[in-house]
Amino acid sequence: MSPPNFLESAILSHGTSGSQPGRSKAFARQPMTWAPTAYKNLAEQGSAENAKCQQRMLNCARGLEKRGIKLEVRSWASSDAELERLLRPNRVGTASNYCRLIERLFEYSDSHPNSRDCNLIFNSSFIKGWLEHLIDHKVGRYTPSSSLTSIRYFAALLEFPVTGDTVLLRNKCSQYKDEKSVETQRAKGYSKKFLSWLELMVLGSMGFTKPDQLVCGRIRLSAQASIRNDDLRRTPSGRIEWVYDPLEGEHREYRGILTRAQHTKTLPRHWACSRLGVTEQGDGWLEATVGLLAMAHGDGFATDDHLEKWPCLRDTVGRSLHQTGRAIRVTSAD
Q1: Is residue 5 part of a domain?
Q2: Taking a C-beta distance cutoff of 8 angstroms, is the pair 271, 225 a contact?
Q3: CA atoms within a 13 Å half-sphere pointing along the CA-CB vector of 66
Q4: Cα–Cα dist 30/9, whole Å
Q5: Tell me, what's the pLDDT at 193?
Q6: Is residue 84 part of a domain?
């Protein structure tokens, strides 16, 4: 049995109108068509993200030199262009996190009375003060350990001395990580009322454009499947399979979709999503979302290695939905 075609039947026709009652003039001016894509596949996007990360790592190297750190790597990679070319990370996400921690360390060093008027030295006294600064600001339980790792990472990469990475300071980070009073900062769960609104948006009941509907559909999909936005993005569009009711018969009812992310932080992940809405009025939101995705991907829906089109999935304040990278939890709150 071939998968159902929701391109025409599942999406209400009035969802394409730009002059529905209640729509603001700002929304009425939004384009009715999909924006051109910035990248054709994940490889192109990954290459662009690598280039941005390399530039950020080079800026960290310059920041260390500006603060008096002698980089031995400069003895054989003297130019910025050569150094930037060599600073290609194995994992962009991890390297970007280390850059963020080093940048925060620069802010601490520039404002600290003992280090702002002299060269930066990574001895035990400075690193102890830095770790205590993080702990006083009640950072996440893993942040102090990650900060130490970021210093070791750049020290090994750029060849500069670090004498303060001691066993006792590592123990201090481990003790903070094991403290029960340090709670993990989780994203707040979406309420049933908000999820119901997303479903009505996807079904076209609010009269917004199809790109607006698709943004809401992807948020609703992440919540229903309990999947990180980045894992959703890395799911090939052609891998979606519809799951039908096991009852025999020619007209079987479908229950949802089953698919698999191409790769995640650990291993490829299977995930499933039910078609049921928060209320009966919202049933059919999944079919509409898949139909909108097919429209956005066009001819590449069966072959694309991702499940989005980057520029057309921007929310109203211009932030990309997959930047958060957090799993969305559903609560029973009204």
Answers
A1: no
A2: yes
A3: 11
A4: 24
A5: 92
A6: yes
In terms of domains, do 29 and 50 share one?
no
Same domain? For 123 and 234 the reply is no
Tell me: pLDDT of 264 over 90.
no
In a domain? residue 3: no
**For residues 171 and 249, is the Cβ–Cβ distance under 8 A?**
no
Which amino acid is located at 97 in the chain?
N
| CA separation for the pair 92, 217 (Å, rounded) | 28
Sequence-distant (6+) residues with CB within 8 A of 39 are 45, 48, 310
Residue 11: helix, strand or coil by DSSP?
A: coil
Distance CA 134, CA 128 (A): 10
pLDDT at 18 over 70: no
Quick one: 129 and 85 in the same domain? yes
Distance CA 3, CA 237 (A): 14
Assess whether 174 and 250 both reside in one domain.
Answer: no
* Residue range of the domain that includes 64: 42-178
For residue 38, the model assigns a pLDDT of 63
Paired residues of 101 in beta bridges: none
Q: How many CA atoms lie within 13 A of 275 on its CB side?
A: 20
Note whether 260 and 290 are same-domain residues: yes
